[in-house]
Amino acid sequence: MVAVVGVAGGVGATVVALAVAEALGASRLVEFSAPGLSGLAAASSVELGTRQGWIIGSRGGVQLQRLASSDAVMLAASEADGLTVMDLGLWPDDLAGTRPGVLVAVAACSVPSVRRLEARLDQLKSSVQVVPVITAVPGRSLPKPVGGVLGPSIRRSAAAGRLVLVPECSSLRVGGVTVDPLPRRLQSAAGVIASRVKELS
Fold it and tell me: Rounded to a whole number, what is the distance in angstroms from the first to the last CA of the chain?
């Protein structure tokens, strides 16, 4: 199981989760955002109805599950199901309870967001396998002010080839995720994230 989590709201964790789920060929993406706050509301090509407090849709080969009720319990995976990707939204206090195989930790390309990412990585147990991701990068590398605040945890990930930069995608920032294919630049970055996830799994 792969979990995607954002260090703050609006950093692009749901977009990254969808892109990674597609890149990994996951069987389902489970989004835990509160009802009415889903970033996947327009992402399904087919809506399949509601089951046990979850709205079910599909997009290509990925089943999208988003909360219809705040007290719904995650649907059990059947033996026939493949990989599950969880979009946890904001970093939960009980992150350890989710027991992800690999954690994809998402921050935006800003000084405050990257500082939050460093602080969160410092809190993780060494046994947690993490792929740090920085979204909305305006060029091929981080702007100097952002690169200048990279702490030891992020630098270690970068040295190991696990830090992934996701380019800015203006169409998604304005219109959000729709049934249309994700931008190629995002798909390319998601392919790199998927490769790092596979290496750590």
Answer: 9
Q: What is the 3-state secondary structure (H, E, C) of 84-130?
A: EEEEEEECCCCHHHHCCCEEEEEEECCHHHHHHHHHHHHHCCCCCCE
Other beta carbons less than 10 A from residue 198's beta carbon: 12
Q: Kindly give the confidence (pLDDT) of every residue in the chain, 201 residues in length, as a single tens digit, with 9 standing for 90 and above.
A: 999 999 999 999 999 999 999 999 999 999 999 888 999 999 999 999 999 999 999 999 999 999 999 899 999 887 557 899 999 999 988 776 677 889 999 999 999 999 999 999 998 877 889 999 999 999 999 999 999 999 999 999 999 999 999 999 999 989 999 999 999 999 999 999 999 999 998
**Residue-range domain boundaries for the chain:** 2-200
DSSP state of 153: H
Cα–Cα dist 83/102, whole Å: 12
pTM exceeding the 0.85 threshold for the entire prediction: yes
Q: How far is CA 105 from CA 48, 68, 131, 187, 194, in A?
A: 30, 25, 6, 17, 13
- Classify domain 2-200 by CATH architecture: 3-Layer(aba) Sandwich (3.40)
